[in-house]
Amino acid sequence: MHPDTHLLLHHQRSAELRRRATDFDLPPADPHASLRARLGWLLVEAGLRIMPRGPERPGVAPGTA
Q: Residue 36 has what pLDDT?
């Protein structure tokens, strides 16, 4: 496919997707939201690893100096 034809199809498709996106009327995305979400889930995962898992299997607690 010729590059100009490919670029034209890309512009048409992106314009169509933008028109369809206005139907949802979503607020603009926060560029730092994904970083905050990943950091939050990392902290949740770390907390779950530190907590005891039950009476039969104690959790791994960090050692103190």
A: 83
Output the six-digit token pair for 64.
């103190």
Dihedral of CA atoms 58, 59, 60, 63 in degrees, nearest 10, equals -80
Q: How many residues does the chain have?
A: 65
| C-alpha to C-alpha distances, 16 to 2, 6, 11, 28, 36, nearest whole angstrom | 21, 15, 9, 18, 31
Residues 52, 58 contacting (CB under 8 angstroms)? yes
Q: Which amino acid is at 28?
A: P
pLDDT in tens, 5-57: 899 999 999 999 888 877 777 666 666 678 888 888 899 999 888 887 666 65
Rg (CA), the chain: 24
